[in-house]
Design a protein that fits this description.
The chain has 718 residues and is an alpha/beta fold. It is built from nine helices and 39 strands. A hairpin with a 6-residue loop joins strand 17 and strand 18. The longest helix has 67 residues.
Length: 718
């Protein structure tokens, strides 16, 4: 036997065991390393995908912001506005740093410019002033259990498709698409556009990348201004003494100041693009009556006063409390409500009386101004000019400074078609002077004189006999009274329901409608067979007697909303200011004390678009008069009903009738029987109704690469 044989076998066994163990360890280590690598790879992909998805969403948000910014300036836009080859939105180096930290310059509601996240600006409804400030790709890092990861995040693409044809829709609460919609119950004109976005995130260590893709659908909504019961382009103030019920949607593009003497009840949605407060501007509260809002989905009126405290936007838990109490029927900027601007018009900016500068921007006043030749240095541009009532009118009455009237229409184009505004701009055809029909202007000149106690001056009025205009438009053969030489006016082809008066006598001129209980109503091809009439002027407007109404006023405020009969057409009135003169008004008594100016029951059925003198204008310390005193009065209405159904829209400051509310010996208020016209709620609106524009994202989803490629091909091709 070999002396070392046993030891050798033992040594070999140990070596074998060691080798096996080493191999096992190697395998385990390899498995662990592979697992760790896979874990790191998976973590890298998941983190990268999250960053790419955030970037893709931000690219889409940027696209939405650019659509909104452009369409705020355009009244009309073609369906291919954003297609490749026309005016696409590009992701330039200064416009595409859009990961979760992308910054832009935004104009806040307080007028200050601030750098902030794009998403935050959009959520708050601030105006995007500048492009995102980050470069085309950004560095981003994250730490996870499996290590530290660094990425380059790069927005790749944004494709915006073709707009759908415009259509009218009812924003119904029963439709899930409109769940929580601030325009619920209204009839609006919509166009929709689809959009896709793409972004990638690259792991700078591994060199791997992931991509993310998003699909959006944005709704562009043109909302008829006369589809609101009350619409204020500035601070909304309402402080009625007697109990008041408001039926129909209410909106303010600024703040809302609300109080009452004996009760104020809002029965439909109230939206405020600023803040809502109880009391008056300045913080004074002199109305102790209740203020209630209907809780959505119920008939319950819920008070603004809770636990002895008047709620307002200043409360730290305002957003949640308002949502709980009224279920979406009271919303402010904290709930995402944005300004609803007239497209093409700059936002209203009030003057700050505490500064020497005049900051006033009263751009919307242009709606009631006369047309301007497009070669004039004062021409405001097509987007504004097309929206003027003077541009929409089929008949323009011009009153000279001496009071002499003239009447015009625009000549037809070469094909004989009566056209004024076409497509994306203005086709201005030369004016054609007509004869002034006998009896249309009462007395033949604008020298009918009466005293306006609020304005503190004599008014030289152009009195328009509405019954005579109705005869001229509706009676066969009567329109020959417009004929002047070869110039004629054919109502069957040329009447579109809009009449405009340009009064050149700025300081003391006025326009008055008389004999207006029945208005012209002749639907024609010139206006798409829209019923009714809209009368607009750049002067203060006076409405004497019943207008588009029979004067029989129901006792129930909710009943005044309904038309007198099925034959009642929609009517609109637009002016610098609107004053109601009762059926008992006599010019000869206009200088007497209130005892000599006693009103009688009068009814008006018409939408109003007008200006006001704001609270504390020029530091005068005076109240604007509020919604409750929006139509002006010059008589003693004490104990007398004034019936009104329509819509009250305040877009600008008055520039002619600038005397403040609250002067003594002017009037005593009527028993107000007011309501939002049911025709307007149904989308049956006066001719030439202006619109505000808003936007709503109605669809969003993450998509895969195959869906993205198919959508890019589809949207790019239109």
């Amino acid at each position: 036997m070999h002396p070392f044989s046993t030891g050798s076998r033992r040594s070999g066994s140990a070596l074998g065991a060691t080798l096996i163990f080493a191999v096992a360890i190697t395998i385990v280590v390899a498995v662990l390393l592979r697992w760790a690598d896979n874990e790191r790879r998976l973590t890298s992909r998941n983190l990268g995908l999250a960053k790419a998805r955030t970037a893709a969403e931000s690219v889409g948000a940027y696209g939405e912001a650019q659509i909104i910014a452009r369409l705020e300036r355009l009244v009309y836009f073609p369906d291919d506005e954003f297609l490749p080859g026309r005016n696409p939105v590009s992701l330039t180096p200064t416009a595409s740093g859009l990961d979760e930290d992308a910054k832009i310059l935004a104009l806040r509601d307080d007028g200050k410019i601030k750098e902030m996240k794009l998403e935050d600006a959009l959520k708050k409804g601030f105006t995007v002033l500048g492009q995102p400030l980050l470069p085309a790709s950004t560095s981003s890092s994250s730490t996870a259990a499996s290590g530290h990861f660094s990425y380059e995040v790069t927005p790749e693409n944004l494709v915006i498709g073709r707009f759908t044809p415009a259509r009218w829709v009812i924003v119904s609460a029963a439709n899930p698409l409109y769940d929580g919609d601030p325009l619920v119950g209204q009839t609006i004109r919509v166009r929709e556009v689809e959009m896709v976005s793409a972004a990638r995130a690259t792991d700078v260590t591994r060199g791997t990348e992931v991509r993310a893709f998003c699909h959006y659908r944005l709704q562009v909504r043109d909302v008829p201004l006369w589809g609101y019961a009350i619409f204020y382009n500035m601070a909304l103030e309402i402080a009625p003494g007697p109990i008041m019920n408001i039926y129909g949607p209410v909106h303010s593009n600024s703040n809302a100041f609300i109080q009452s003497g004996n009760g104020l009840n809002f029965h439909e949605i109230v939206t405020v693009a600023g803040d809502l407060f109880h009391g008056r501007i300045g913080g004074n509260v002199d109305g102790r009556g209740d203020v209630t809002f209907r809780k959505a989905g119920t008939t319950n009126l819920v008070s603004l006063q809770q636990g002895g405290h008047w709620l307002s936007s200043a409360d730290p838990d305002w957003t949640s409390k308002a949502s709980s109490l009224w279920a979406g029927n009271v919303r402010t900027k904290d709930h995402g409500i944005n300004k609803a601007n007239v497209p093409g018009m700059a936002e209203y900016v009030p003057d700050d009386p505490s500064t020497p500068e005049n900051e006033l921007d009263n751009s919307a006043y242009a709606l009631i101004e006369p047309t301007i030749q497009n070669d004039s240095p004062a021409y405001p541009g097509d987007e504004i000019e097309t929206q003027k009532f003077a541009s929409k009118a089929c008949l323009v009455i011009e009153i000279s400074e001496s009071g002499a009237p003239a009447i015009y229409k625009y000549r037809p184009d070469n094909s004989g078609k009566y056209v004024r505004n076409v497509g994306n701009g203005v086709e201005r055809f030369s004016r054609e002077k007509l004869a002034v029909p006998p009896g249309l202007i009462v007395g033949g000149t604008a020298d009918n004189k009466f005293y306006d106690k609020r304005r503190g001056q004599w008014v030289f009025s152009a009195d328009i006999d509405v019954s005579r205009l109705k005869e001229l438009i509706e009676t066969p053969g009567a329109a020959t009274a417009f004929t002047r030489g070869s110039a004629t006016f054919d109502p069957s082809r040329e009447w579109n329901g809009v009449v405009y008066v340009d009064h050149k006598k700025i300081s003391s001129g006025g326009v008055r409608l008389v004999n207006g209980s029945a208005i012209p109503n002749r639907p024609t091809s010139a206006n798409g067979y829209v019923k009714g009439m809209t009368f607009a002027t750049n002067a203060p407007l006076y409405v004497q007697g019943n207008f588009n109404a029979d004067g029989n006023i129901p006792g129930d405020q909710s009943q005044i909303r309904k038309p007198d009969s099925s034959a009642e057409p929609p009517a609109g009135l637009a002016a610098d200011a609107i004053t109601i003169l009762s059926n008992a008004w006599q010019d000869a008594n206009s200088t007497l004390d209130l005892s000599g100016r006693k009103a009688t029951q009068t009814e008006v059925s018409a939408a109003f678009l007008l200006g006001i003198v704001p609270t504390n204008k020029n530091n005068n310390g005076r109240y604007s008069g509020g919604v409750e005193n929006l139509p002006r009065f010059l008589e003693n209405w004490s104990g007398v009903k004034f019936g009104y159904r329509g819509s009250m829209v305040v877009l600008f400051e008055s520039e002619r009738a600038t005397e403040p509310w609250g002067m003594s010996n002017v009037y005593r208020p009527p028993n107000r029987v007011w309501g939002f016209h049911t025709l307007f709620a149904e989308g049956i609106l006066p001719p030439g109704t202006p619109v505000s524009r808003s936007y709503r994202r109605i669809a969003f989803r993450d998509i895969n690469e195959n869906e993205y490629n198919a959508l890019v091909a589809s949207l790019s091709g239109g």
